[in-house]
Specification:
- The chain is of the alpha+beta class and 285 residues long.
- The protein has three domains: 6-119, no CATH class; 123-134 and 241-284; 143-238, Chitinase A, domain 3 (Roll).
- It has helices at 6-15, 29-35, 53-65, 72-91, 98-119, 128-139, 157-168, 173-180, 202-210, 243-268, and strands at residues 42-46, 49-52, 144-154, 191-196, 221-223, 226-238, 273-274, 283-284.
- A hairpin with an 8-residue loop joins strand 7 and strand 8.
- It has ten helices and eight strands.
- The protein is elongated and about 85 Å long.
Length: 285
């Protein structure tokens, strides 16, 4: 593994694409002049180390992504404090600790990978035809009946039978669910919201389909989760979502798929050796 300048690695890892590191004291004046940032681009110096306008802009963007109100002065102060702490950490030899060095290298690799993908985004563009095809595939069979129901989930069949007896005597279903159900919908009076047949296990769904709106099951229904008493509230015809509603999600999925294929091609062209711990075996591709 190739290790870059420690200063550069820290800058990339801690400041998100900023580069606050400079030349060492041993560098010649000519070397410093050839590699140092232009004076007009330096917005601050910390113990001689420059912070550039590029660094500041990257920090402003990072703050914005964190949801903070963008303020250049605040961003500059954060950069200064980060550089101060980075310099202190280096003076104490912290980057020489194996776990810290490894974490820095991982973050560096992650940032390089992100920017590799970003530099090739044009290769991952998704056309209208691809989006429409993905939309049709995703929404095929979306039409059908949706159900809105409640249930009371119990551990014992006898408990479920008692709930049905109380319902027969005029008890309120939602109140019984709130007071007795063991399921996560207890606080909602057993309300399961709207769902399609594919979303529920078969024994449960078979009973739902047999009910009319307002009816509840006359006998307990057993599933792997326990014993249910079910009440059907209403049904409706499912509506196919509009293309515009799904376009962003579909685009992200298709771009993600293309990136996965690209990474797969890198693996295919690489020599990879995986070594395992004691007693294991290595493999390569």
């Amino acid at each position: 593994m190739i290790h870059r300048s420690l200063t550069a690695v820290l800058a990339i890892g801690a400041l998100a694409l900023t580069a606050c590191g400079g030349q060492s004291d041993a560098a010649t004046e000519t070397d410093a002049e050839s590699s140092a940032p232009e004076a007009e681009n330096v917005v601050a110096r910390v113990n001689g180390e420059p912070i550039t306008a590029v660094d500041l802009q990257a920090q402003v963007q990072a703050m914005s992504r964190r949801g903070q109100q963008v303020n250049q002065q605040q961003a500059l102060q954060e950069l200064i404090e980060l550089e101060l702490m980075s310099q202190k950490a280096e003076s104490q030899g912290l980057p020489d600790q194996p776990e810290i060095a490894a974490a820095i290298e991982r973050q560096r690799s992650s940032l390089l990978a992100q920017h590799l993908i970003r530099s090739q985004l044009e290769d991952f563009e998704v056309g209208e035809e691809e989006l429409r095809a993905a939309y049709e595939e995703r929404t095929s069979g979306a039409e059908g009946t949706e159900y809105k129901a409640r249930h009371i989930l119990l551990e014992e069949k006898e408990q479920a039978q008692d709930m049905i007896r109380q319902l027969d005597e005029g008890a309120d279903f939602a109140e019984l669910a709130e007071n007795n159900s063991t399921g996560p919908t207890k606080s909602r009076g057993g309300d399961l919201g709207w769902f399609s047949a594919e979303q529920m296990v078969e024994p449960f769904m078979n009973e739902v389909k047999a009910l009319g709106p307002g009816d509840y099951t006359g006998t307990p229904v057993e599933t792997q989760y326990g014993w249910h008493v079910i009440q059907l509230d209403e049904t409706r015809e499912a509506q196919k979502p509009e293309f515009e509603q799904m376009e962003r999600e579909l685009r992200n999925e298709l771009v993600g798929k293309k990136i996965q294929e690209y990474v797969g091609s890198l693996r295919d062209d690489a020599e990879i050796e995986i070594t395992r711990g004691e007693g294991g075996s290595g493999s390569s591709d």
